[in-house]
Amino acid sequence: MTIADIKKSTETKMGQSIEALKNNLSRIRTGRANPALLDAIHVEYYGSMVPLSQVANVSLLDSRTISVQPWEKNMAAKVEKAIRESDLGLNPASLGDLIRVPLPPMSEERRKEMTKLARTEGENSKIAIRNLRRDANEGVKKLVKDKEASEDDQKRSEAEVQKLTDKFIAEVDTLVAAKEQDILAV
């Protein structure tokens, strides 16, 4: 493994951390309805637990209402129960084969909880990125120790990895700030 391989691998993994953060932030509730909010809900389907999106069509009716339309009529009750029992605090209403999930307006206290949750997700991503930086630097040190790279290469590599780390941490800060704005918008 060369220094270039280590840097490339580190950059790829940092990018994956950013994608994971985007995914986690999309599940945090804002004032508006978002179909991704129901992604974490699993429903029992013929004996196995499957994501809600695999048994129903999830879409938006308006800015405060998510519609869920199960593909099989007998799944409506199970889907409604799964949404009600999730920790999202939602109360679905069934209209024949369509399930409406109105999102109640969030209280100021709930908004603050959601911003804390967003910050926590951001901090976890920063920790993951810093761990990747550490791993990359240790990999380069091992190459120097094994006489496969010089100490100058090590210094140069550490500086480049630090620039990468700074870039990705700035991106995390940007994503978290945008999510906080979204949550606090009334």
Automatic annotation (TrEMBL):
A single GO BP: cytoplasmic translational termination
Function comment: Responsible for the release of ribosomes from messenger RNA at the termination of protein biosynthesis. May increase the efficiency of translation by recycling ribosomes from one round of translation to another.
Keywords attached to this entry: Coiled coil, Cytoplasm, Protein biosynthesis
Listed SUPFAM superfamilies: Ribosome recycling factor, RRF (SSF55194)
Domain Ribosome recycling factor: 21-184
GO molecular function, one term: ribosomal large subunit binding
Residues in coiled coil: 140-167
The organism of origin for this protein: Comamonas terrigena
InterPro entries hit by this protein: Ribosome_recyc_fac, Ribosome_recyc_fac_dom, RRF_sf
Protein name (database record): Ribosome-recycling factor
Name of encoding gene: frr
Transmembrane segments: none
Principal subcellular localization: cytoplasm
This protein's record includes keyword Transferase: no
Homology family: Belongs to the RRF family.
Location in the cell: Cytoplasm
PANTHER family found in the cross-reference section: MITOCHONDRIAL RIBOSOME RECYCLING FACTOR PSEUDO 1, RIBOSOME RECYCLING FACTOR
GO CC entries: cytosol
